[in-house]
Amino acid sequence: MNIVIYIYNGMTMLDAIGPYEVLRNLPNANIRLVAKKKGEITADSGVVHLHAKHQIDEVHQADLLLIPGSMIAFVREMKDRKVLEWIKSIDATTQKTVTVCTGSILLAATGLLKDKKATSHWKPIHLLSEFGAIPTRERIVEQGKFITAAGVSAGIDMALYLLREIEGEAAAKVAQLAIEYDPNPIYASGNYTTAAPEIIGAAERLMAAEAKKELSLWDMIKNLRTLKKLGR
Amino acid sequence: MNIVIYIYNGMTMLDAIGPYEVLRNLPNANIRLVAKKKGEITADSGVVHLHAKHQIDEVHQADLLLIPGSMIAFVREMKDRKVLEWIKSIDATTQKTVTVCTGSILLAATGLLKDKKATSHWKPIHLLSEFGAIPTRERIVEQGKFITAAGVSAGIDMALYLLREIEGEAAAKVAQLAIEYDPNPIYASGNYTTAAPEIIGAAERLMAAEAKKELSLWDMIKNLRTLKKLGR
């Protein structure tokens, strides 16, 4: 199975690495991390760097396309017609097209999620509606061949779900045991709908402070009409 | 806070990226991924490549040292006296020294876990006893400044636990919400003590097939006396 994970500057590393670590247990998985251009890709933290060995103009097919999210860089990707066209062209060849976190907003910007339910990170999930998708606050949302997952760590759950669909229950269970995925967080503070208001506020401030490091993109989120004109 | 994550060829990517994605929410975190030599580091899958910007002979201090595990490459690292000495010298400067998966076996090979309880991936956990540590089948084991986590995904739980210790409850909860860590695996197959025997068998075969791709290291695991002579 040809698995393509799109990687880009400013991406959130765990969005890609969580699902990758599950999916690589798929028999005969051929996983490629594909960037706009071969070479270095820097995560949103600025401290983790991937080395991309594949670039989009050389990759024309995937059975599975995975689009990770980012703190704010998804806005830059949305402005890039070449990226949107490539995503659409690969999607035309996939069995499944899946996203983690704000990857769903990038996918929605191509138009492919129009009138479909989709999830995303709890904070920017409303942006999905700007592109005709229906924001749906669930951990995993499946609509035909499209599966979207909530923020960051949700990609691990999504990948196990996907592995079950592709290869069956035993394969999903084996992968889960291989990565010893028996989660046991010390707190129950990972869900927006049940987190304490002061924790939500503090998380919003933390993320906004980081997102505002790229002020031009931050301003663009606030003016999505411009973004939509650029993006489609 | 200076956080150093040791990265090496053959490492399991999620072992490092899971905790990193939690810890980067720590205020004033200065995270460095440090390799033997600057340049490219390839994960155990062979398809994910990091670009290391720091190398061990230039890094002399850390408040927190994190050692990720690997399918089998930890055995190669154990043979490298320079790596073992560097780990010991950094540990002498840390507040916390932590591991994920087989990272604990590499740490044990330095002698630092002697007579201490430690956990590891469920499959090779018995190897800890070869280096005087006490194999303890728990998700997180804390012994003074040392915290060891079970396989792969356990690093996320461990990092939240660590964040609570370093920065307090609110900081851990905020990080958990930022990465939307509200895990909801479709199966309960991530724990060795409760997984079905046929799933354990299949996972063992899957991992052995991959580990045996590096036959020289595989043989070395089977002859740990040689390894111990080399390692210390």
Describe how the helices and strands are arranged.
Two copies of one chain form a homodimer.
Chain A: E1 2-6, H1 13-23, E2 30-35, E3 39-42, E4 49-52, E5 54-55, E6 64-67, H2 74-78, H3 81-91, E7 96-100, H4 103-109, E8 117-118, E9 134-135, E10 140-143, E11 146-149, H5 154-167, H6 169-178, H7 197-211, H8 215-222, H9 224-231
Parallel strand pairs in A: 1-2, 1-6, 2-5, 6-7, 7-11, 8-9
Antiparallel strand pairs in A: 3-4, 10-11
Indicate the low-confidence ranges of chain A by residue numbers: none
Order of helices and strands of chain A: EHEEEEEHHEHEEEEHHHHH
* Main sheet overview of chain A: 7 strands, mixed
Q: What is the CATH fold-level name of chain A?
A: Rossmann fold
CATH superfamily of chain A: Class I glutamine amidotransferase (GATase) domain
Proportion of helical residues of chain A: 25-40%
Counting helices, strands and paired strands, the structural category of chain A is alpha/beta
Using only C-alpha atoms, the radius of gyration of chain A works out to 17 Å
CATH class wording of chain A? Alpha Beta
Distance between the termini of chain A: 30 Å
Tally of separate helices of chain A? 9
Report strand order across the widest sheet of chain A: 5-2-1-6-7-11-10
Beta-strand level of the residues of chain A, as a percent range?
15-25%
Which protein chains make the most extensive interface, counting residues with beta carbons within 8 Å of the other chain's beta carbons? A-B, 65 and 65 residues
Mean pLDDT of chain A: 94
The count of strands of chain A amounts to 11
| Shape annotation of chain A | globular
